[in-house]
Amino acid sequence: MSDSLLTPGPGTETESAVVEREGMNVEGRSFAEQAWTRFRKHKLAIISTIALVLIALSFVFGPLLSPYTVEGIDIANRLQGPGAEHFFGTDALGRDLFVRTVSGGRFSLLIAIIVSLLTTVLGTVIGALGGYLGGWVDGFLSQLTNLFLIVPALVILIVVGREYGGSPISTAVLLGVLLWPGIARIVRGLFLQYKNQEFVLAARAAGAKSPRIMFRHILPNTIGPIVVSATLLIGTAIILESTLSFLGLGVQAPATTLGTLVSDAKGSLTERPYELLLPAGFIVGITLAINFLGDALRDALDPTTGRS
Amino acid sequence: MFAYATRRVLTSIPLLLLGTFLVYALTSQVNDPLAPLRMNVNLDQSAYDRVIDLYNLDQPVPVRFANWLGDAVQGDMGTAPSRGDVEVAPLVWDRFKNSARLAVPAFILIATFAVILGVYSAVNQYKPSDYIITGFSFFGLSMPTFVFGLLLQVIFVVYWLQWFDLKPFNVSQMLTGSFGDVIASHTLPVVTLMLVLLAGESRFQRAAMLEVLNSDYIRTARAKGLPRRTVIFKHAMRNAMIPLVTIWAIDFAALLGGSVVTESIFAWPGLGRLLIDSIFAADLNLVTGIIVLIATLVVFFNLLADLIYGVLDPRIRYE
What we know:
The complex is a heterodimer.
Chain A: H1 15-21, H2 31-40, H3 43-65, H4 97-133, H5 135-150, H6 153-164, H7 168-194, H8 198-205, H9 210-218, H10 223-246, H11 258-265, H12 274-301
Chain B: H1 2-30, H2 35-38, H3 45-55, H4 61-72, E1 79-80, E2 86-87, H5 88-123, H6 128-142, H7 145-164, H8 179-213, H9 216-223, H10 228-240, H11 244-256, H12 260-265, H13 271-280, H14 284-312
Antiparallel strand pairs in B: 1-2
Helix pairs in contact in B: 1-14, 5-6, 5-8, 5-11, 6-8, 7-8, 8-10, 8-11, 11-14, 13-14
C-alpha cells in the first residue's frame, strides 16, 4: 500500500500550517505554571511569603548572630528596655529577650510544621480510605471522625496536656493526633466525588488495583485542597500551641516557645508591655501571613476559580 | 423527616456513650486523684481510703465507668472532693449559667454582625470596604484569644485610667448587681469571645452570599427589573443565610461550653475555668461531668442544625 494518503498533495494545508495561521501555536502550560500565574496576582500572598521566609531565617540564624544565649542569666542587666545592646530588652532574670523570642519562634514553627505534616497524612489516609472504600469502612471512619468532633480539641488537649505534653515534640504529636478530622472530612468528600468518574473507571478497566487508583489516580486531583488545608493548619497549630502553653498545659520550661514567652510576660503587662507584644506580634504576624498564603493557594490551585 | 430525626437521635446516643467512656478512661489515665493527698504528709490511710472508695479506685476502669454511668443516668453525677464534696450536678449547672451570661449576648452580636459584614462585603466585592472587612476578619482569625483579651484589658483598664482618669470596665470579677455593673463586667469578655467567631462567620457569610449572587435566579431577578435592594435582601440574603445555620449551631455550642481562655483571663466563674481548675485538682467526677455536658451540647446543637437545615432548604432530602 502506498503512502500517498499520508503525504499532502499540492495545495493542501498541513495541520501545522493551520495551527500557525489560526494563531493556535500557544504552548500548553502545565498546571503548576497556571497556578503560579494565578498565585502571582495576589500581592499580599507574595508579601506574606517573603515575610515568612525572613521570619524563618531570623529564627534559624538569629541565635547564632547574637552574643547571648537562651538561658544566660545576667542579673546586673535585668529588666532592660529594648535598645541597641538587647534588641528586645531583658527579662526579670536578665535573659536576652531577642534570643529567647527567636529561639522560641524556632520551636513554635517546628511544632506547627510537625503538626501540619502529621495531621495531613493522618487525615488524608483516613479520608481517602473512607471515601474510596465506602461501606462499613466509611461508616466506621465517619463515626470515628464524629467522635473526635464531639469534644472540642482544646478540651481534650487540656485534659491530656498536663500528662503527655511538656516537650515540644510531645505537644506537636498531641495536636496532630487531635486535628485530623477536619482534613479527613474534606478528603473523604473529594474521594466520593472522584471515585465514579470516567478516568477512575478507565484505570480500573486497565487493570489498576485499588491502592494504585487511590494514590496515583485520585490523590493528585485532590492535592489542591490538601495543600491549602496543610498550610492553614500551620497557623491553627501555632495558635493552639501558644494557647496551651499560655494556660500552662503545653510546652513547659525550660523549653521556650512564643506561647510560653507570652505566658511569662502576662504578669508584667502593665509595666513592660513590649515583653508581651513582641512574641505576641510574631504569633499574629506568622498566622496572618499563613492565612493570606493559604487563601491565595486556594485560588491558585483551584482550576475552576477565575477572578472575573 | 421524622424518621431521619429519630435515626439521628438514636445514632447520637451510642456515640455520646462511647465518647463519655473514652473521656472517662482518658481522665482516669492522666489524673491521679490520690496525687493531691500525697502532698500532705499528715494524712492517714483513712483519707486515702475515702478517695479510693469514692472513685472505686480498686476496680478496673470499665467497672468504674459502669458504676459512674449507672449513677449518672439517675441524675447522680457524684461529688467533687476538690470543692468540699459538693454535688457535681448543681455546681456544673451554676457555672454553666455563668458561661451562658457571656455566651448568649456574644452569640446574638456575632450572628447579627456576621450577616451584616458578610453581606455588605459580598455586595461590594473588591471595593475598598470589602478589603477592609476582609482584612479585619483575617486579623481576627490570626489573633489568639488570649492575646486579644490581654490587650483589651491593658488598653481599656490600665491605659484608660492613665489617659482619661476613667475606669469604665471591671475585669476582676463577675458583677450582676445593677445594670451598670453588668455592662462594666460583661462587655470586655463578650468582645473577647466575639473576635475569632465573628471573623470566621463573616468570611463564611461573604462566601455564601457571593455564591448566591452569582447564581442564575439572581440574574433573572435583576433582568426583570427588580430594584437592587429587593434582589439583595429578599432574594439573595435569605438563601445565603441558610448554610450559616450549621456554623451558628457549632459556634453556639462552643460558646455555651465555656471558653477556657476568656474565662481565665477575666476571672469569670464559668464552665471553662471550672474545667481547668478541676483538671489541676485531679477531680475526676468534676472533669467528667463538665466534659459530658460540653459533648452533649455539641451533639444536641449539631442535630438541631441538621433538622433546621432541612426545614429551611426543602431541596435537602434525608434518606
